[in-house]
Specification:
- By secondary structure, the protein is α/β, with parallel strands linked by helices.
- The protein is 48% helix and 12% strand.
- It contains 19 helices and 13 strands.
Length: 486
């Protein structure tokens, strides 16, 4: 009897202990997503391989989405680990895996169809969905004009959702979705007549249109939409709240606008005619002088494509070019500059390019140390065009306006004031055609982008579009938006 009583006591004690453990276990909370990534020290992000999101060039990882999310990771003190999805369906599936990436930064439009697959951050970029057609074909002007056309869009995209909704109104509408293409592929297929139409967002068209001379905008399909980052759906808002706070700060401190300007602020400066002319000169004129650009670049540690872009802006790669003001040659050097750089014959293309290379390095070295890259490159080009004195005047006016004199985005807004008496009368060096360096820099940036894209070895972009191998006529090289090293 005593033994039985003792057993009951021990059993009661064990039950009490188990009960306490269960209570304690029930009170212990699972770590939040933010706590988990902070403990791991790594922010795992999934994205797409495209010029507007993420790609690798000879300088490493780059792309608008990459740079923005890299700043977010740095802000959190975390290492950034990038993963890429072959298509949008795979991207959302990976985002919902228990041990998968915790954030998608891939130029995603927040749409009704995606709400069940993700929670979206505050917007960071506004885009417009656009119907794209081939020049020379009849231009569609309304949704009814899409009937009977060969239409291809990205599988799982917001554009596929738009067409599905439109098909409810227009049952005869036919279109295809493909997971084996990216935006550059769709534009190329329209450009070459493989398909009649596609849908892309305005930002991606602006970045890529210059490479496809036959591509045109037919009409906007619907209102502007917002791009946002995404996390897995659920009650846990810890990481989402941090994302929103970061995006708000990026809006307020101007870093988001500067990033937009870097990637999109110069993409539409050429137009159709300028792009076509440049493409023609690229084939007919550049081969004559490419050797000189490469030699001068190597000797002066300058990117040869930057020198070539400068030469095209100055003279359209014409060694005998002469202006009314007396600047001459392929790099359009003044007599004084040519003499200072050791150029005896400005009409000699080799000498002119060597002189231009030496001079841009000299100009950059004269800039204040407070101007850092990538802005330092743009300031150097502006100074090359307008002179250091006028550029310093513009920087002082910029500072007086409460803007940042070390940021090209701010100074380019003020430079045109140097042509207005109410402003240049307050400066040391007086009147200048301040709008010219702004256009000068924008054009050179665009020419540089194109030169980088067309001269990049095929191997560098091979991993970016492996799923496109079976598609005819698709060039897998990607535009380079990196800052050119001076």
């Amino acid at each position: 009897m005593f033994a039985h009583s003792a057993f009951r006591v021990r059993r009661a004690c064990w039950l009490s202990v188990i009960g306490i453990l269960l209570v304690l276990g029930g009170c212990a909370e699972e770590p939040s997503t933010l706590e988990r990534v902070q403990a791991e020290g790594v922010l795992r992000v999934i994205t797409r391989n495209s010029p507007a999101t993420y790609f690798q060039d000879r300088n490493g990882e780059t792309g608008f989405e990459y740079e923005l999310v890299k700043r977010f990771a740095d802000d959190l003190g975390l290492e950034l680990k990038i993963e890429t999805a072959d298509n949008l369906d795979e991207l959302f599936a990976s985002l919902n895996k228990p041990n998968g990436p915790v954030l998608a930064a891939a130029g995603l439009v927040e749409s009704d169809g995606r709400q069940q697959h993700a929670r979206f951050s505050l917007p960071y970029l506004e885009v417009t969905p656009q119907v794209i057609y081939r020049n020379g074909q009849q231009r569609p002007t309304r949704p009814d004009d899409l009937l009977g056309k060969r239409i291809l869009v990205l599988k799982g995209s917001s554009h596929a959702e738009q067409l599905a909704a439109l098909k409810l109104q227009l049952p005869e509408l036919a279109y295809e979705e493909s997971a084996a293409v990216e935006v550059v592929d769709l534009l190329r297929m329209v450009d070459e007549g493989q398909i009649d139409l596609t849908l892309v967002d305005s930002n991606e068209l602006a970045m890529n249109q210059v490479y496809f001379s036959n591509v045109r905008v037919a009409f906007d399909l619907g209102d502007a939409q917002n791009l946002a980052w995404a996390t897995a759906p659920g009650e846990d808002r810890s990481l989402l709240d941090e994302m929103n706070a970061f995006i708000e700060r990026a809006h307020k401190n101007g870093s988001l606008q500067r990033l937009k300007d870097r990637y999109y602020g110069h993409v539409d400066v050429l137009g159709y005619v300028g792009a076509y002319t440049f493409a023609k000169h690229l084939q007919q004129r550049l081969p004559r002088y490419e050797k000189y650009f490469r030699e001068a670049a190597q000797a002066n540690q300058v990117d040869w494509r930057l020198l070539a872009a400068m030469g095209y802006q100055e003279s359209l790669w014409q060694p005998t070019a002469t202006s009314k003001t007396g600047v001459r040659g392929l790099m359009m050097l003044t007599l004084r500059t040519a003499q200072a750089m050791g150029v005896s014959d400005r009409l000699n293309p080799k000498q002119s390019i060597e002189g231009g290379a030496k001079y841009i390095v000299y100009v950059k070295d004269q800039l204040p140390e407070s101007i850092q890259e990538p802005d330092r490159t743009w300031f150097a080009l502006a100074s090359y065009n307008i002179g250091g004195g006028h550029l310093e005047d513009a920087r002082k006016l910029t500072e007086a306006e409460g803007l940042d004199p070390n940021k090209w985005l701010d100074v380019q807004k003020i430079l045109p004031r140097l042509a207005q008496k109410q402003w240049y009368s307050k400066t040391r060096y007086g009147y200048a055609r301040g709008g010219e360096p702004v256009h000068f820099v924008r054009n050179i940036r665009r020419y540089y982008d194109i030169l980088t894209w067309v001269t990049q070895p095929q191997l560098e972009g091979s991993q970016l579009a492996e799923s496109n191998q079976h598609l005819p006529g698709i060039d897998k090289r990607q535009p380079n938006e990196q800052t050119p090293p001076l």
